[in-house]
């Protein structure tokens, strides 16, 4: 009987640890996220999709902007996954590269603007939470993640563009 | 006069529709329930269909005479009341199936975030034609009472409904504030929705997993195997290379679940000090070389790419990741210098 009791207690114990983690996340992360999400969602609704689309189109001409500012605006105002739809403003040959740049930035954006990809927060949040527990400030990480995200988006865009051009030429 | 059928589509942030409004001899009223002023959308619907415009705040009409109701509801009552009565409902606010009457708000009877440009005649097929028709109407509007005879009745109704309704400053401020408040309210609802549908379930699943891992001793195994990898630049480059392999990346991608779980596991190691804090930035890129790889065809078709583009675009992105995955880690590594 003791053995069974011990096993049962051990089994419950697994979930006590899980429960503590869960409570910690809910009380530490959710309140701030809710307010931030509400604020950003309000701004998006007030600005309106059409205005964003009109503005975003101005950034499609040069690779430097096409794979940085353009996906950034798409993420900030249309979020993941609808931001992919802005690809329709690009020439057909740039679409795969835009996809790659957008995807590359889809997680780096969440450090500062969680609303842009609220369903996939924990890539950043998982690591950030750990650092916070260890007593580090997160501001520096979030900003650097954002900046490096833009640089990586540009690299991915340019390199994928080259590879796509190469593949399609080989195909002809 | 003859009534015309119109089609109403949802706006960019809207829900439901498209609705086809088919007025008949008995069902020929546009009921506008938008507070102190008549919504321009209701006005336009009345003009286009030839229906009589009725201000729901001043008078009422029997439900069976209402062809369509126009509301500006932020998501509590009005948006559900009319669908519940089986009356076609147009909401000018971007509100979906929400509120206490959400169950009655269905796509076949309700459409939201509607503005004047979402209205078109059913017998016109392309957008430009609809637009020119709309312009024509506007021109007719500008011409005032001298507009085409066929629209006279509708216009008279509109004028009657507008009577005594000089938009004074107080009303305009009131409408403006209401509009903004509605948007904030809808934004709050979206946020809570997101938390309940996506964030909380992920937290539930991951915290359970973490609990089991740490309580069962598996945590120590991970700490001893993965942590050393993530404490060196070559180790992280290796991880990103693996994640970016073209035959693995689409499998690792879906919903970023794996990246999120790995991120959380690594977070626990950062918390314990098993991995030095300055490696956080490159680690974020190391575990994420596969981001979106499961989504390439869908993402490209969202961008209205041709099938040919998708066919060659998928391998282009996948191959690119083999190079850019490790490259991202290196860039992040240099940017992390001096962070902590």
Automatic annotation (TrEMBL), chain A:
Q: Does the keyword Ligase apply?
A: no
Which parts pass through the membrane? 25-44, 64-84, 141-159
Q: Name one GO biological process term.
A: phosphoenolpyruvate-dependent sugar phosphotransferase system
**What keywords tag this UniProt record?**
Membrane, Transmembrane, Transmembrane helix
* A Gene Ontology term for the protein's cellular component: membrane
One Pfam annotation reads EII-GUT
The lineage's top-level taxon is Bacteria
> Has the keyword Secreted been applied to this entry?
no
Q: What is this protein called?
A: PTS system glucitol/sorbitol-specific IIC component
Q: What species was this sequence derived from?
A: Catenisphaera adipataccumulans
From TrEMBL, chain B:
Q: Which domain of life is it from?
A: Bacteria
Molecular-function GO term, any one: protein-N(PI)-phosphohistidine-sugar phosphotransferase activity
Report the InterPro entries cross-referenced here. Answer: PTS_EIIBC_GUT_C (IPR011638), PTS_EIIBC_GUT_N (IPR011618), PTS_sorb_EIIBC (IPR004702)
Region (Disordered) residue ranges read: 130-158
The chain positions of domain PTS EIIB type-5 read 2-200
Annotated positions of the Phosphocysteine modification: 73
Q: Does the keyword Membrane apply?
A: yes
Q: Which residues cross the membrane?
A: 199-223, 235-267, 318-337
Q: Does the keyword Cell division apply?
A: no
What UniProt keywords apply to this chain's record, in alphabetical order?
A: Membrane, Transmembrane, Transmembrane helix
PANTHER family annotated for this entry? PTHR39427, PTS SYSTEM GLUCITOL_SORBITOL-SPECIFIC EIIB COMPONENT
Name this protein carries in UniProt: PTS system glucitol/sorbitol-specific IIC component
Q: Which organism is it from?
A: Catenisphaera adipataccumulans
Organism lineage string: Bacteria, Bacillati, Bacillota, Erysipelotrichia, Erysipelotrichales
